[in-house]
Amino acid sequence: MERNCEFERRVLSIQSHVVSGYVGNKSAIFPLQVLGFEVDYINSVQLSNHTGYKHIKGQRLNADELFELYEGLRLNNLLFYSHLLTGYIGTATFLKELVNIVKQLKEINPNLYYVCDPVLGDNNELYVPEELLPIYRNDVIPLADLITPNQFEAELLTGVAIKTKEDAIEAINILHKSGVKTVVLSSVELGTKENLTLLGSSLNGDEKTLISLTFPKMSAVFTGSGDLFSALLLAWMSKTNRNLKISCEKALNTMQSVLKRTIDSKSDFNKGQGSPFEMELKIVQSKNDIENPPSTLKCQEL
User: pTM for this one?
Assistant: First the structure.
């Protein structure tokens, strides 16, 4: 049976899952569906809630179990995807099996668009074993079409300490040299604690598009926002025929709306307090902003 992936928006999303709250697949699936994508998903971990809560219960999928699920899809001829999205992976064996899956999916559909959020850590803290770093650097990143590391992850992957915009561009160029066509550094601190900067770069033959967007930093800690951003960027890159500038604007404007709505719903935000439950992203309540992003923030071409 043949299928034409050109006319389908069908995503396989492999990342974490929580029963309550919004991280990983819970952050990604609803926005993708609202924007017109069919989403199949595999949960790398399945937890009761995210790790910001006092108690966490759940299971982790191992590499053999990942292969078993993939094999079931293969045997039923269900591996026709236009997009692949990956996020949190907790073990080296799982990540190595994922590399095999990416290669096979690209054989089935040479036009498969792979968006990789290399979830390694944030704020100088690793979330995963250090042994995942060389696998991402040598095996995963070269297979990706778009990657969305934060500042800390970009530094880990490239060895560049990012203090200035020039440092960030150097890190981006190193990632390009590994084979990835589009790099978006989702949040970079450049000398000010009041603002964050998104930096994106895309190669198309000899042409290079380089953009930046500075936006206000919100004085709150969010969980699952990076997973939401990667999903939104995947969707808009598809809907705009991979226009990096417009896609980043739409994804980030939606993000800011979701984060603001989350803050506004928190009863004691001004006291700098709040339970993890109060800080769960207001994604469902932001359906209109997902479908029709505001146009407040604008990218600058560099």
Answer: 0.94
